[in-house]
Amino acid sequence: MRVLLRDKAGVAAVEFALVAPLFFAMIFSVIEVGWTMTKQMMLDRAMDIVVRELRIGRTEGFTRDYVRQRICGEAAIFTNCEEEMLVEMVPIPAGSSYPDTNATCATGSTAVKPVTKFDPGLRSEVVFIRACVNVIPLTPGIGLGLRLRHNKDAGFFMTSESALLNEPE
Fold this sequence. Notes:
This protein is α+β, with helices and mostly antiparallel strands and 169 residues long.
C-alpha cells in the first residue's frame, strides 16, 4: 500500500481532470461573449443605417418586408434573418413615451407573421422602430451559453431599437 501512495505517475492526469472543465468553460464563455457582442453591434449598425435611410426620406411607401430585408442585408452575420426577424414600427403621439421594452419576438417554431404593429407614420411624426431576432448560442451547453437560453428553441432574443422623425415635406 505504501508503494501506491508514493507513486506519482497519475498526478498530472488528476490535476488536468480537475482544472480542464473550468478552463474550457472560461475559454468558451469568452468566445461566446465576443460572438454575441459582434452580433449585437451588427444588428445595431444595420438598424442605424436603415433608420437613416428612412429618416431622410429615401424610401417612400416602405413596408415591413422591405425594412426587414434591408436590416438583414446590412447585418449579414445572422442566419435565417429574413425568416426569423420581426420588425415593428409605431408612431409616437406628441407628449407620450416610447413603447415598453417587452419586444415581440419569434422563434423557429413560431410563425413569423406576427401580431406586431407596422405603421410608418405621417410626415413630421416621431416613429419608434424595433427589430428582434432569435439567436442560438455557439456553445449552448458550456459556460455563458448555459445562461443565455431564454426561449423554447434554446436561444435568446436580441433586439435593437431606435426612433426617427419623419422629415416634413
